[in-house]
Amino acid sequence: MSQSPLDTTAAFQALHTHHAAIKDKSLRELFAADSSRFDQFSVSAAGLFLDYAKNNVTADTMTQLFALARAHQVEARREAMFCGEKINTTEHRAVLHTALRAPPLPALEVDGQKVSAEVHAVLQRIKIFSAAIRCGEWLGHSGKRITDIVNIGIGGSDLGPKMVCQALRPYQHAHLKMHFVSNVDGDDLDALLAQVEPHSTLFVIASKTFSTAETMMNAHSARSWFLRTGNEVQESDLRKHFVAVSTNVEGVTAFGIDPANMFPFWDWVGGRYSVWSSIGLSVALAIGFEQFTEFLAGAHAMDNHFRRAPLEQNMPVILALLGVWYRNFFDYRSISIAPYHQDLGNFPSYLQQLEMESNGKRVSLDGRTLDVASCPIIWGNVGTNGQHTYFQLLHQGSDITPVDFIATLTASNQLPGHQAALLANCFAQSEAFMRGKSADEAKVEMQAKGMPADDIEALLPHRTFPGNRPSNTILMTALTPANLGALIALYEHKVFVQGVIWNINSFDQWGVELGKVLARNILSEINGTPAPHRHDSSTNGLIEMARAALR
Ligand code: F6P
User: Fold this and answer.
1) Is 182 a pocket residue for ligand 1 (Cβ < 6 Å)?
2) pTM, to two decimals
3) Residue 181 falls within a domain, yes or no?
4) Contact, 49 vs 475, CB < 8 A?
5) Does 425 share its domain with 477?
6) pLDDT digits 0-9 by tens, 110-162
7) Is 99 within a domain?
8) Ligand 1 mean position, distance from CA 200 (Å)
9) 388 carries an active-site annotation
10) Domain of residue 536, residue span
11) Contact status, residue 406 vs residue 51, Cβ threshold 8 Å
């Protein structure tokens, strides 16, 4: 396969030359040389503030990175996405998650489809249904109020609604409990079913294709549990307890869900971009339609910023370019996400799918092998917990991992002192990553404690911090639906810009298909006839062990 020549383009080459010139300048030196870095390298948009001063960049670096974005036609490609061109070329689809959060006017029409009108018609149905559940007008078949919502989905049909419901916990309806089941491991569903009661539970089966094996198995098991003897229910009662969110009306009907209880969306919504569509039904049920609308509006505000702001002030573009700078020029291989907000605990896993399923590709749009690295590994956890575990590696490990700190200035809890302590930890970490602690500083510190010279000598290498470890800090006033919407959209557009620069299709996911097909075959061998010669000796051996255990 021939190579896609990116690294040799003028823009990449200019950045390589620039990198060679500045790579040895530490962040400490950059800050010492320029006291205006915070003002110079920060930007606000759609309720978010990004401080990117603690990155290994100068004004010159940024100029060259913006030139790279222009050379790769980021502006034209961005417009193509917003206008509904079929930029998902391997699936011949438009990419229109931005239309899901746009107001009805100006109306968008693509290939004869009245996109805005259809989107708002479905939103209207979500509004009516969520209100009926929340106010107790929609009752279970025996007249009981719905108290538990179980979202059954996986990937984008799980992570989006789960992350958002957790993030907006203070906005949740006081008497509706939200549950999320994704794993085909029966322990996931089994543990949940032990907590809920069939007469007061609503299952939302969320699947774009309505054919994903894990979701279908969980949905069928939930259906059998609902219909089991002793529950005093009939098939016709399903319609009060099972609704679907899907693009596949035939599949939904075959499962036994009334199409009137199906909330549709469209093939131009990718799974990992679907929380804005009816996949967000669970979110609307949890926080109410009005707040759901705020969530969409926050994302739309970020869309407007991304579409209209010049690249130099464009938050998603800046975030994307910094990522490219570290990946392709410093060869940093992962990014850690550190939310300093307990309710953003699921945000790192959400971003793992968003970034790695989108940009975890090694061939260009025209099918050639990339000659540069693409998506880094994305990982993380809530900040203060990470501080007491893997932050050791971030401070003193042999790899450098840029960190995105995310924090809110105010808290939703009223506990005195906690928010200041949380923010102090967040800011202290980014300062420590940036400054480190030199051998001289560590020595002075130990001398001040009266430590013997021999001990100081022995401990010095261990108590020295190299520093020069970059980070971004994203702040918002509070974790409101609108700010959360803007935050997610910020990362979506970051991913888009990086995909454009690497010239890859950020909107397909062929990589996840292979395992699905193989699992289907192996399942039939575990349950049915063994085929010892079909696989390698390892896989054959493992299948035999499973057959023996499950016999
Ligand atoms: O297997 C990957 C994937 O296709 C994701 O892209 C998607 O979010 C997830 O599975 C769930 O798919 P569906 O909503 O069709 O069940």
Assistant:
1) no
2) 0.97
3) yes
4) yes
5) yes
6) 999 999 999 999 999 999 999 999 999 999 999 999 999 999 999 999 999 99
7) no
8) 28
9) yes
10) 511-550
11) no
